[in-house]
Amino acid sequence: MVPIDLRVFGGSALTDRSIGLPTAPTDGIPVTYVPARNTIFLSLALAYAEVRDADAIFTGANAVDYSGYPDCRPEFIAAFEKLANLATKRAVEGSPVSIRAPIVHMSKADIVRAGTELGVDFSLTVSCYDADDGGRACGRCDACRLRRDGFSAAGVADPTRYRR
Question: For 4, what's the count of Cα atoms within 13 Å in the CB-facing half-sphere?
């Protein structure tokens, strides 16, 4: 495990609690965007993939029903893959790595349906930006709204435990 504490950078309502969490959708990139988060995560995954001689890295980025984060777009994924294959020994020596984002073009409803078909126990998952210590979702933040709307659009009961 590699400990990562993005709070040292701040700049986001998710890493700096002095920046309030929005309770309604906003225009533009929201304050919940964590600067370079997916770049950091993918960089660490790339180092690990190179050491493990992996051919692919998978990420859960989603660009359809998302909060507007620039590092969740297909363009970012493609650009990171290009960077990965310029920056690693294995790629330069002829073994490129692919960056795969299987849900990047799926709606939240499509993700819920696919997860349901695969037997995912969604009651064990939390999307909330402000879940309590017991894992109960706030029910007000953008992530809760997107999740709730995804379950509703999929026609699947939402098993999320909400505080309110």
Answer: 15
**Can you give the CATH number for the domain in which 72 is found?**
3.40.50.620
Q: Are residues 22 and 50 in the same domain?
A: yes
Q: Nearest CA to 127 among 32, 28, 17, 1?
A: 32
Q: Quick: pLDDT tens for 63-122.
A: 876 678 999 999 999 999 999 999 999 999 999 999 999 999 999 999 999 999 999 999
| Domains of the chain: total | 2
Other C-beta atoms lying within 10 Å of the C-beta of residue 94: 6
pLDDT tens, position by position, 128-138 = 999 999 999 99
- Residue 43 is given by DSSP the state H
99 and 154 part of one domain: no
Long-range contacts of 57-60 (CB under 8 A, 24+ apart): 57/84, 57/97, 57/98, 57/99, 57/100, 58/100, 58/101, 58/102, 59/99, 59/100, 59/101, 60/101, 60/103
On whether both 67 and 16 belong to a single domain, the answer is yes
Q: What is d(CA 113, CA 111) in angstroms, rounded to the nearest whole number?
A: 5
Contact 136, 163 (CB under 8 A): yes
- Range of the structural domain that residue 114 is part of: 107-164
